[in-house]
Amino acid sequence: MLALDRVSKTYPNGVEALARFSAEIRVGEIIAIIGGSGCGKSTLLRAIAGLDRASSGTVTLDHEAISSPHAKIGIIFQEPRLLPWLSVADNIGFGLADLPAISRREKVARALERVGLTEKAQAWPRELSGGQAQRVAIARALVPQPEVLLLDEPFSALDAFTRRDLQDHLLDLWADTRPTLILVTHDVDEAVVLADRVLVMRPRPGRLFDQIEINLGRPRDRNSPLFENFKRSVLTSLDRSLDRNVPDRDATQGPGHAMWW
Amino acid sequence: MISDAPVLQRSSEPAESAAAPSRLSRYARPVLGLLLPLTLALGWELVVWLGWSNGRLVPPPSRIFTTITDLTHSGELVRHIAATLWRVGLGFAFGVIAGTLLGAISGYWSLARRLLDPTVQALRAIPSLAWVPLFILWLGIFETSKIALIAVGVFFPVYLGVMGAILSVDRKIVEVGRVFRLSGFGMIRRILLPAVLPAYVVSLRVGLGLGWMFVVAAELIGASEGLGYLLLDGQQLGKPAQILAAIVTFAILGKLTDWLIEIAAAPFLRWQDAFGQAKGA
Description:
heterodimer; A: alpha/beta; six-stranded mixed sheet; four-stranded antiparallel sheet; disordered C terminus; B: mainly alpha; 83% helix
C-alpha cells in the first residue's frame, strides 16, 4: 500500500505548491489526479517518485519511507525521455543493467512484443513517431516490474487518436502485473477511462479537494451514458475546485458523494 | 522530442522518393566543387606553358608537383612531415588531456567552475602567439616550447567544448538516470559520457585545426626541420614552388588527420545521423 501522509512542499522562493496532501492508495489501484494548473499535481508525483523531497509529511510504500528513487516505483514522463544514443531495445533494457545479458534480452524481447515494436528493436529513438516513442517509454518503465507506476501527463503531447490507442494499451499492459498506477492528467476523459478513483486537486496551495470513485467495469465504453455521467461529475467537481467561494470541506465528506445518483 | 518526430518522419518521404537524383548528386556535388580550382590550375598551367608568364613567383601546378616528388625522393619531405606530425601529435595530446580534465571538472562541479573558469577565460583572451617569447625564455628554442604552444592552442577549444557539453546535458535525461538509481559513476558512464560525446568530437576537431595552425607559427619561429621550416626556407631562398609544396602538404595532412578523428568517432555517433542512413539502407 502506498500511503501519503500530510505531504507538503514549499519551494525556496516561498511558493506553497502542495499543502498537507493525504491519501491511501491500494495495491493495484488506478488513481487519476486531476486539477487546474498550479495545483501541485506534478509536485506530488515527483515527491512520490522520490525525485523531489517533500518539505514535510511522508510518502511510504509498504511502510518504507520514500525519499529517493525506489526500485519498486517507476515513472513515465510527459516526454518519452528516451536516451537517443541507445537503440529501442537498449532503452527498454536500461533499468535491467544488473541482470545477466540473457535474461535481460529475454525480458526486452517480451516487452517489445508486448508493445508491438518488435521490428523496431534496433531502431534509434529519433526514428520513432511520438506514439511509438511513448510506448517504448512505457515498456522501459514496466520492464523492471515496478509495484507502483507514476505517469505525469503521459499522453498529453500526442494527438487524440494516438492518445486513445495508448490509453487502451496502457490498461492492457497494466493487466499483466497489475501495478498501482498513479496518473496525473488534465484530461477528464482520460481520467474516467482509466481510473478506479479520481482525485481532484485545487490550486494555491495545491491540496486535495475531492475524490470520485469510478464504479465502472472494464473495458469502458466511452460513449455510454454512465461514462458521460462520471465525466460530468468529475467536471463539476473540477469547476467547484476552481471556484474560490466553495470551501475545502468537500474532501472530508468522504468518497462517493459526488456520484451521479 | 515528441513534437519533432512526426516532422522528421514526414520529411523523410520525399528524400526516399528522390533517391535516384540524390545518388547522382552524390557524385556530382564534389565534382562541381572541384571545377573552379581545377580550371584555375589548368588555366595557369596553360598560361605558363604558352610563355605568357614565366611562373617564377607563382609556379604552375606541374612545378609544384615536381617539387613534391623531388622532396619525396630525397627523403626530405618525409623527414619534415615526421617532425611536424610529431609536434602536432604531442601538442594535441597534451592539449586534449588538459582541456578534457579541466573542462570536465568545471563542467561537473560548479565550485570548481567558479574558481577556475574566470581565469581560463581571461587566459583565453590572450592571443596565443603572445606566449611565444615567454615560452622560448622558459622552455628554450627547441621542441618543448613548440609543443607547449601547440598544446595551448588545442587546450582552449577542448576545454570550452567539454565544459559546455556537460553543462548543456539535458536535465530531463539526467533525471531518467536518477529514476533508475544510477550511482555517480553509472551516471557518468551511461548518461553523461554518451551525451557529451558529439560535442566533444567537434571540440577535438576544432582543437586539431588550431594545432595545425600553431605548428606553423612554432616552426616559423625557429626550426631546422618541419613543414613550417620548409615554408621559411622556401621564402629565404626564393623558392615559391617549395612554399606551395609545403602548403599543399599541410592541407593534405590537416584534412587527413581531421578525417581520422571523424572515422574513429563514427561508430559511437551512429545514432546521430542514423536517420538518413537507416532510410537508405
